[in-house]
Design goal:
The complex is a heterodimer of chains A (264) and B (297).
Chain A: E1 18-27, E2 30-40, E3 45-49, H1 56-63, E4 73-81, E5 84-85, H2 92-98, E6 99-102, H3 113-123, H4 129-142, H5 146-149, H6 162-175, E7 180-184, H7 192-205, E8 210-214, H8 218-224, E9 227-232, E10 235-241, H9 242-245, H10 253-259
Parallel strand pairs in A: 3-8, 3-9, 6-7, 7-8
Antiparallel strand pairs in A: 1-2, 1-4, 4-5, 9-10
Chain B: H1 9-47, H2 53-57, E1 60-61, E2 66-67, H3 70-101, H4 106-119, H5 123-137, H6 144-168, H7 172-180, H8 185-193, H9 198-212, H10 217-220, H11 247-256, H12 264-293
Antiparallel strand pairs in B: 1-2
Helix pairs in contact in B: 1-12, 3-6, 3-9, 3-11, 4-6, 5-6, 6-9, 7-8, 9-12, 11-12
Classes of the chains: A alpha/beta (264), B mainly alpha (297).
């Protein structure tokens, strides 16, 4: 916004959906993000790769301000969505509806499948029965779960299998019609076939929203992402078009080693 | 390979050890049940000549040597119910705050420390506090209300502790999932946390309250009397500002103050007191069974 970031010619002209500016985050005395800056394009899948403890999940928590729920987290720097600093938004609850979040381990709430998906709309005062039913069906279809559960919408969501619960989690994240969808290692607890189905879902979803994908599977980033960022110990090693990051000559030797499994 | 599965001395000794440990642990567990069976059995046998419906529904007569325990039984029910009505909402809401809202800090630590220490205060000290604070300072006078307030203060810390435990049994990931879709803390508590911990909370509250039925010291100075005649068969015979009799106090007086009472009388009174407590506990156990059956994850 203020400083002139010259975009590379391949990038679309639309202003970026998310801008992160000099973001620092520490838990107590330990700093885990050391001042990082990057942009996320609209309607792109933006992948964040990097080993454990590199700050990937912490970074996602800054996007929807759930970081504020951790007792000793301290943040400086800015996260802007559509050019507006999220810390200056009047309501953190509407921010969290705009930024959907899918956690690493699937969480079926102890409610029926229907109520799991209807939870967020109801929490924002949406009670019309027919519209709710239509919304639930749409979200479950988008998450590729509808066909498996359409006959038992009123059974407990917690009794579904792990892969189904993960898709239920995605359906729940879609239920509040987010503009940004963050997924934190969504495939950690599910089988490869289900993973591929969800990846197809994501390709479809990026027509409607911006997706931030944290993943430990570097090949998943390669398959899905337009741009990829390599995070290492709270610093950006490299951020660029996925083709470049995964090419034989990325900007950093470290990136090459990491994506090719030479270390990490 | 066959040799691998042959019985070596080591394997035989493992089996022997397992059998011995099993027997010892089993005996210990059974030993837990014996005192209860012995107490109940002994009391019922001793009390048998007096146990009848009339014993429950008649006032004590003849200088407490005849009649039943009606006014004491009703007094105990009043005290327990009133202290439940006072302590349960305060305790549960305080626990919800401490478990769901309070940030970890010195203030929260002090509150938690106070709760733990309040639980360790002897009941006779609570009695004197109740006498000073409710009967004299607040001017309520010796009454069911003052005695119930004293009992409520006594049970609050245990209700808070058991409620916090029930709340903490709901996994953190559920709360995070709710916050992630933009739910407030209260929406999360109302929608997910409370519905899945309410049976545990109620079980804890009921168990704690049933213990107050047996308390004597806190009510002795604050509202319980030696003897009081009330209309028989009228469940609304007491008012909140009346003094009342209570089973625990009654048991104390007929064993220590009344001479030449029939031998079975204290035993029968004890059976009624124990029966009341066990009845309340049975409700708590039924709730807990229901809770297990409905477990949702």
């Amino acid at each position: 916004m203020f400083e002139s970031v010259t975009p590379p010619p391949v990038r679309p002209l639309a202003p970026p959906k998310i801008q992160v500016r000099d973001l620092k985050l520490s838990y107590g005395a330990q700093e885990v993000l050391h001042g990082i800056s990057f942009d996320v394009d609209r309607n792109d899948i933006f992948a964040i790769i990097g080993p454990a403890q590199s700050g990937k999940s912490t970074l996602l928590k800054c996007l929807n301000r759930t970081i504020e729920l951790l007792p000793n987290a301290r943040q400086s720097g800015q996260v802007l969505i559509d050019g507006v600093d999220v810390s200056e938004l009047p309501s953190v609850y509407s921010l969290r509806r705009r930024v959907g979040m899918v956690a690493p381990l699937p969480v079926g709430l102890p409610l029926s499948i229907f109520d799991n998906v209807a939870f967020a709309p109801r929490a924002s005062g949406f009670h019309d029965k027919q519209e709710l039913a239509a919304l639930v069906e749409r979200c479950l279809r988008q998450a590729a779960l509808w066909d498996e559960v359409k006959d038992r919408l009123h059974t407990l969501g917690t009794k579904l299998s792990g892969g189904q619960q993960q898709r239920l989690t995605i359906a729940r994240a879609l239920s509040h019609e987010p503009e940004v969808l963050c997924l934190d290692e969504f495939s950690i607890a599910i089988d490869p076939v289900t993973t591929m189905r969800i990846e197809d879902v994501l390709k479809e979803l990026k027509q409607h929203m911006t997706i931030v994908l944290v993943t430990n599977l570097v090949q998943q980033a390669r398959r899905l992402a337009g741009r990829t960022m390599f995070l290492w110990n709270g610093e950006i090693v490299e951020e660029g078009a996925t083709d470049v990051v995964f090419s034989d000559q990325p900007q950093s030797r470290k990136t090459y080693d990491y994506v090719n499994g030479i270390f990490g | 390979m066959a040799a691998t599965f042959a019985e070596t001395p080591l394997i035989r000794s493992k089996h022997r050890q397992e059998a011995v440990v099993r027997v010892i642990l089993g005996l210990m567990a059974f030993a837990m049940v014996l005192p209860l069976l012995a107490i109940v059995g002994y009391l019922v046998v001793q009390a048998w000549p007096l146990l009848s419906w009339d014993f429950l529904t008649q006032n004590p007569t003849g200088g407490m040597r005849k009649g039943g325990v009606w006014s004491a039984l009703l007094g105990t029910i009043y005290l327990v119910t009133t202290s439940l009505v006072i302590a349960a909402p305060v305790g549960v809401l305080a626990a919800v705050y401490l478990n769901e809202y309070a940030k970890q800090g010195w203030l929260t630590r002090i509150i938690n420390l106070a709760v733990v220490n309040l639980a360790g205060v002897p009941s006779i000290v609570h009695a004197l506090f109740g006498l000073g604070a409710f009967v004299l300072f607040a001017g309520i006078g010796r009454s069911i209300l003052a005695a119930s307030l004293t009992l409520a203060i006594m049970t609050l810390p245990v209700i808070i502790a058991s409620t916090k435990e029930a709340l903490a049994s709901v996994p953190m990931s559920f709360r995070e999932a709710c916050w992630n879709v933009g739910a407030t803390r209260w929406q999360t508590i109302r929608g997910i946390v409370l519905p899945n911990s309410i049976s545990g909370i109620l079980t804890g509250v009921i168990l704690q309250v049933s213990r107050t039925a047996g308390e004597t010291a806190p009510i002795m100075f604050t509202g319980a009397v030696f003897f009081k005649r009330i209309p028989e068969g009228d469940p609304f015979a007491y008012g909140l500002y009346d003094q009342c009799m209570a089973l625990s106090m009654h048991l104390f007086t007929i064993t220590t103050q009344v001479t030449e009472a029939p031998k079975a009388l204290p035993y029968a009174t004890a059976v009624v007191l124990l029966g009341t407590v066990l009845l309340v506990n049975a409700v708590a156990i039924a709730l807990r069974v229901k809770l297990r059956a409905r477990k949702k994850w």
